[in-house]
Amino acid sequence: MNGSRSFSPQEIADALRDRIRTGELRAGDRLPTQADLAEEFGVERGAVRQALRVLQEAGLLTNVSKGSPPRIAEPVGPGRDEPQRTMVGLAPRLAEAFAEQNVRIDAACLTAQSLMLAMGESVRLIHEGRARPESINVRVLLPSRKITLAFPVSVEGRGDDDPVHQRWLKMRNAQAQVLEYNLGSLRSTHGIDVQISFRALPFTPPIKLYLLNEKEALLGYYVLDEREEEYESQTLEMYDALGSQSVLFAFLKQAGQRDAAFVEESQKWFNALWETITTDLTLS
Questions:
Q1: 61 touches 12 (CB < 8 A)
Q2: Angle at 97 between CA 57 and CA 212, to 5 degrees
Q3: CATH of the domain at 250
Q4: CA 230 – CA 60 distance, rounded (Å)
């Protein structure tokens, strides 16, 4: 790789990551020395050290020290980038996010059900003293009550005072209120600076998106299905999506240029919606 081109630390990390993924470098193998890597990529050792820190933070290296070259880490359980259903993958990732001093969670979804349930683990860790954030800032985008939702929708079509829409609205408000209460209570019990706010989307989101500390993006598709549900003594036949069963695809900013770009663009997308066409949302 040596030549006239200068490689950035991220490009060096990406190249080494590819060697790990393809099996050229296996678990337990030692990396070449920093001097050898610097010569290979035509850079100073400082750039190599930065690249190694990126790989260490991603959990791909162990024994990173000045004394000897680091080793390739053994894989631990399922890969972090392995897709998981929302109710399996969201809670542990939120718990990791809550390990930081300043927590920021942004979410765009149809209701706050999955977020409300998954956040319970993080709240529990705070009550047990195993997580001690100084501040928590949560922003949630939910569909406006005033729009005609694309889904959930009655199989027979929309009508006046649509019970499918009323059911969704009741769920949206109740779940968001529980989320707001559970997080807000941490102000008085633990003195944490908690801010939680909601904005109303003027459209039905076809996906769910969770952004954790501006470092990780979790994306899932709402997959529609025809189903029935009992609601206020009547059977509703509807086209709906069970968001808790949506498969989440994880993108970690430190995992490489592709993932980093996805996280950054997703954050821009969310911020732009928050600051422009969304409106204040009242949970009633």
A1: no
A2: 95
A3: 3.30.870
A4: 49
Beta bridge partner(s), residue 199: 141, 280
- Domain tally, the chain: 2
Which CATH number do you get for residue 46?
1.10.10.10
pTM above the 0.85 mark?
no
Assigned domain for 137 exists? yes
Per the rule left: phi > 0, alpha: psi between -120 and 50, beta: everything else, 42 is left
pLDDT digits (tens, 9 = 90+) for 62-107: 766 656 788 888 764 444 567 888 888 899 999 999 999 999 999 9
- 61 and 144, same domain (yes or no): no
Answer yes or no: is 79 within a domain. Answer: no
In the chain, the amino acid numbered 118 is A
**CB neighbour list of residue 3: distance below 8 Å, 6 or more residues apart:** 42
As a whole number of angstroms, the longest Cα–Cα distance in the chain is 74
65 and 108 fall within a common domain: no
pLDDT 10s digits, 140-157: 999 999 999 999 999 987
Tell me the pLDDT tens digit for each residue of 181-228.
999 999 999 999 999 999 999 999 999 999 999 999 999 999 999 999
Domain that holds residue 60: 9-72
The pLDDT, as a whole number, for residue 241 is: 93
- Does 258 lie in the same domain as 122? yes
Indicate if 104 and 226 belong to the same structural domain: yes
